[in-house]
Task: structure prediction
Amino acid sequence: MAKMSPLLMTLLFIVLSSMMMNQLPVASSKKWCVATPTATEKQLGDNMEFACAIGVDCRPIMPSGACFLPNTTLSHASFLMNSYFQSHDQTDHACYFFFPDSSIITTTDPSYDRCIYPSH
Result:
């Protein structure tokens, strides 16, 4: 069996590695901020009140809005908290609100049906 030169082996390694890298899934750089299921109704209500008071568009969670259903505090808070998070360039700090355990950053898109959660 003939020996390969170190240069040829390096080139072969680079080509094969490049081919394999193109087969791997790319991690999403999109992030969302959503309410945690363990947050209390009061915590989520305070977070929603804060978001609406500082200018987040709260119309999508109103009865005629695309994100009204399901009509739950958890769902409505998630949408508003994410809207605030996105308007502050997805900074980690923008997802913590008043209660550190009331929200979490995720890379899984929480959008559903007509309710589209914004992301950069």
The two ends are 54 Å apart (CA to CA). The CA atoms of residues 3 and 96 lie 59 Å apart.
